[in-house]
Amino acid sequence: MSILQSVCKAMERIAPLRLAEKWDNVGLLLESPNQRSGGKNRVLLTIDLTTTVLSEALAKDTSVIVAYHPPIFSGLKSLTLSNPLQSSLLQCAVKGISIYSPHTALDSVWGGINDWLAEGLLSKKQDDVIGALVAEKIGANGVSEGAEGRLVTLKEAIPMDLLIHRVKLHLRLTHLQVGINPLVESRSSSVRTIAICAGSGGSMLAGKKADVYLTGEMSHHEVLAALAAGTNVILCGHTNTERGYLPLLASKLREELQGQGIAGEGTEDVEVIVSQKDQHPLEIV
């Protein structure tokens, strides 16, 4: 079994593609016809396939890139070197790098990105609850496999300021964008329910009943609508709600690959690494 086949099967067990949203583009997006000349079996995890991440992948003899955001999303009418993203895809194909994207499958699955986000908000030694924000996704065996978004219900309400502190600590951020319910006009007011969606969650969160909406980004009018409805808003930056999950994904992927018995098939040098060049495209100055 090739390293690409092994990664695809392992990722399918971690985040089954059937859990992805219908509008999404997930799975094996680019299968290179070539093999890396360096002879390494290295898998690089990233949120985005940027030009700097591509350079890193080439320098580290990467065979497979698992890019959370699909670098091919809608139909391409051409592939040219003049387009930076298309140029990256062409270089991957030529250099023997294949690309896999899990995106919303990894959001929905239990134990995925949205659960990781939710777990950072929980109180210690409390019976807080993480549940589905939208209807659960039931598998063919009748077992729940995941859901869209998450709703955290704290056993005891906490001040908004404390929730903001927990979010900063969990995501390792120094700044957030916060909108406060105009009916209370205070960050010391208590909150108990938090609706969560990784990335850009405005459309999923809209109309959901919760004290707080937590996501990466929302449009101006989505924020206004939430505040008018009496809901607090915490915006963290799109990829800041996703990137911290990559080390956990790396651990899961290593475990799955080892479980396939790859080491016994002559590929003992398989490595799963997290990109050091992948970062949020904007910075606060």
What can you tell me about this protein's structure?
The protein is built from nine helices and 13 strands. The strands form three sheets. The chain has a six-stranded mixed beta sheet, with helices on both faces. Strands 1-4-3-2-13 form a five-stranded mixed beta sheet, sandwiched between helices. Strands 6-7 form a two-stranded antiparallel ribbon. The longest helix is centred in the C-terminal third of the chain and has 14 residues, at 246-259. Mean pLDDT is 93; it is low at 262-267. The chain starts with a helix and ends in an 11-residue tail after the last strand. The chain has helices at 3-14, 51-59, 84-95, 103-108, 113-119, 160-171, 202-205, 220-228, 246-259, and strands spanning 27-30, 42-46, 62-67, 98-101, 129-132, 136-138, 144-147, 150-159, 177-179, 190-200, 212-217, 232-235, 271-274. α3 (84-95) links the parallel β3 (62-67) and β4 (98-101). With 285 residues, the protein is of the alpha/beta class. The protein is globular. α1 crosses α9. The protein is 30% helix and 24% strand. The protein folds into two domains: 3-103 and 243-274, Udp-n-acetylmuramoylalanyl-d-glutamate--2,6- Diaminopimelate Ligase, Chain: A, domain 1 (3-Layer(aba) Sandwich); 110-239, Udp-n-acetylmuramoylalanyl-d-glutamate--2,6- Diaminopimelate Ligase, Chain: A, domain 1.
